[in-house]
């Protein structure tokens, strides 16, 4: 079984089940193309946009928000943004990191 990247799941599961190789940008590399000629990987985003019917502006990879941590740990004992106590474990409360006592659970 091939390891999957999170990018493999962003196309909404429209894959045909073939085990093809892709570069870091999700473009197919190596092997033979649909026309029987070897693929060089230089087809770029234009070929993949044509195949999916997208113009590149509605790429789901650009609409996904990056993950945000909910917890931070530091052995140095940084201070809580609310009470100022030095703690090693802090939780995100909005844009701030606070101790367990100050966190609105």
Automatic annotation (TrEMBL):
Pfam families this protein is in? DUF7573
- From start to end residue, where is composition biased (Basic and acidic residues)? 51-64
Query: Region entry Disordered: which residue ranges?
Result: 1-79
InterPro entries from the entry? DUF7573 (IPR055995)
**Residue spans of biased composition, Acidic residues class:** 1-22
Show where the DUF7573 domain sits: 67-105
List the protein's name: DUF7573 domain-containing protein
């Amino acid at each position: 079984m091939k390891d999957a990247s999170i990018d493999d799941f962003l196309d909404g599961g429209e894959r045909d089940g073939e085990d093809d190789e892709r570069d870091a940008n999700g473009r197919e590399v190596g092997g033979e193309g649909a026309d029987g000629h070897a693929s060089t990987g230089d087809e770029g985003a234009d070929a993949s946009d044509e195949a999916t019917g997208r113009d590149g502006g509605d790429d789901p990879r650009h609409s996904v928000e990056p993950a945000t941590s909910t917890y931070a740990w530091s052995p140095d004992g940084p201070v809580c943004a609310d009470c100022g106590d030095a703690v090693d474990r802090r939780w995100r409360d909005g844009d701030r990191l606070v101790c367990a006592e100050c966190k609105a659970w």
